[in-house]
Design brief:
The protein has 127 residues and is an alpha/beta fold. Helix content is 46%, strand content 13%. Residues 37-127 form the Rhodanese domain.
């Protein structure tokens, strides 16, 4: 009975997740790269400082989304009137950051596949 209940809950969770609307856009590497060429775009790397120092997109601001002070630091450093292009390692943490920031009224977009996809497409990083 317990297994049946868990299976039903899992199925409902999947179906609800599949119909949920994101409050942000997801972009592939090509579109993300074109977007961030504009001076009006803020580029945000939400990985840890150690990950950031291993290589990041030129001009990116680093605010660790897993840090408890993420939203406070974001409010201080990010301009709510400008679009924020966000990335992480694989796209999961940046999607979380996009969602959190969008909930606060920021306009955000997420790099699908994160810096892994970026470097796989042989785009430049700064160390």
């Amino acid at each position: 009975m317990k297994k049946l209940f868990l299976a039903i809950c899992a199925a409902l969770g999947c179906s609800m997740g599949a119909t949920a609307q994101n409050a942000f856009d997801n972009m592939n590497v090509k579109d993300f790269e074109a977007l961030i060429t504009s001076d009006s775009i803020q580029v945000l790397d939400v990985r840890t400082p150690a990950e950031f120092s291993d290589g990041h997109i030129k001009g990116a601001i680093n605010i660790n989304v897993l840090d408890s002070s993420f939203m406070n630091v974001a409010r201080q450093k990010l301009d709510k009137g400008r679009m924020i292009a966000i990335y992480c390692r694989s796209g999961k943490r940046s999607a979380m950051a996009c969602s959190r920031l969008a909930g606060e009224g920021y306009r955000t977009t997420n790099l699908l596949g994160g810096i892994i996809a970026w470097t796989k497409e042989q785009r430049p990083v700064v160390k």
